[in-house]
Amino acid sequence: MKNVVVKNAGELITCQGQAPKTGSEMNELGIITDGAVVIKGGLITQVGKTDEILKNINIEEFEVIDAAGKPVLPGFIDSHTHFVFGGYRADEYSWRLQGVPYTEIMERGGGIINSVAGTREASFEELKESAWKRLDSMLSFGVTTTEGKSGYGLELETELKQLRVMKELQEEHKVDISPTFMGAHAIPSEYEGRSGEFIDYLIEEVMPLAVEEGGAEFCDIFCDQGVFTVDEARKLLLKGQELGLKAKIHADEIAQVGGAELAAELGAVSADHLLKASDEGIKLMAEEGVIGTLLPITAFSLKEPYARGRYMIDNGLPVALATDFNPGSCYSESIPLLIALSTLQMELTLEEVITALTINAAAAIDRDAKIGSIEVGKAGDLVILDAPSYTHLAYHIGVNIVDKVIKNGQLVVNG
């Protein structure tokens, strides 16, 4: 592995600080003008002013990447995705555009169950090939680490197939993957009207193997109206914690059911969506250090009101942002769109957005000790923008301005 020095960063956006950041701390980016970063063995060993860094190294021992006055940031982290799936739901999207209600789409065979059928039918190789291409696209947007969920199997074989795809991609692809078991993504047709029995099946037969063979790090569940109740979610997540799976929750997206409150009760790492989360739920989450992961592209795609990101940050909740890339409600891995919606529609500052996509997103997958900021000892994951300032991330609306991506000290995207 080559030793690398990145020099002449017009703005070195370090995002350093205790994670997750809350309140006004989310606006503190730790910017070093004319900065440089030294990476050895894939890890950052020095951070500082370019002239000072160059005095302390033998430049002949390094591959030099000249940022030429451009901004340099930590690699982006997409902390909530469903990128391993079979089949597509373009017809369903067209129906939505025509105003067909979700209940009728479900009657036509749409919704999560549609993707379950496609994923069950797809071979391991087909799932891996399509997921690889999606990771390539994420990397082009500056994403160096992503979370991926199972949940399009709803039975043992396909849940494990999704997790094994992620496990193999982790070994072979440049993007790092944080795997999540989400067998409780929907109620399969074979368990219709028997959601409690399905939870028992997941606990007894699927979850142990998701840990042993699938390598899952988190357990997630769709806790909302028409899906799984708070009691069912509590039962599954507690069992997951016993098996070593850290808790995440799809919470209060469709209705206010107490998902945010449950996240606080269980000390979940994150609660995601939160479009309908209560003031009390937000308060309790903030007190317990649960990260609120907001997914504005999904609200945009579904024409739903956005999560109250401004209120959450102002009331002490640590916020992360993610795409929710999936084949149904959010077929988009676009970081530029995510930034535009977060600033224009959720009223976050660009500085808060950057924090939410880096150090706070790292905390949302419990990896903030290793990634998410440009600090000594962390992975050499960097993004160089083709712009004079980081402010162009919001100013150049919806356009990808990533010029170079460095992953573990290796240049993996170049112009």
Percent of residues in beta strands: 15-25%
- Per the principal axes of the C-alpha atoms, what is the gross shape? globular
Structural class: alpha/beta
Counted up, domains total 2
Tally of DSSP β-strands: 16
Topology of this structure?
Blueprint: E1 4-13, E2 31-40, E3 43-49, H1 50-55, E4 63-66, E5 71-74, E6 76-78, H2 90-97, H3 102-107, H4 112-121, H5 124-140, E7 143-149, H6 156-172, E8 176-184, H7 195-212, E9 218-223, H8 230-242, E10 246-251, H9 259-266, E11 270-273, H10 279-288, E12 291-294, H11 296-302, H12 309-314, E13 319-321, H13 335-344, H14 350-357, H15 359-364, E14 382-385, H16 392-395, E15 402-407, E16 410-414
Parallel strand pairs: 1-4, 1-5, 6-7, 7-8, 8-9, 9-10, 10-11, 11-12, 12-13
Antiparallel strand pairs: 1-2, 2-3, 5-14, 14-15, 15-16
Helix pairs in contact: 5-6, 6-7, 7-8, 9-10
Can you describe this structure in just a few lines?
The longest helix is centred in the middle third of the chain and has 18 residues, at about 195-210.
Report on this structure.
There is one protein chain. The chain is an alpha/beta fold. About 35% of the residues lie in helices and about 20% in strands. Strands 1, 2, 3, 4, 5, 14, 15 and 16 form an eight-stranded mixed sheet that branches. An eight-stranded parallel sheet has the order 6-7-8-9-10-11-12-13. It contains 16 helices and 16 strands. α6 (about 155-170) runs parallel beside α7 (about 195-210), α7 packs parallel to α8 and α9 (about 260-265) packs parallel to α10. β7, α6 (about 155-170) and β8 (about 175-185) form a beta-alpha-beta unit.
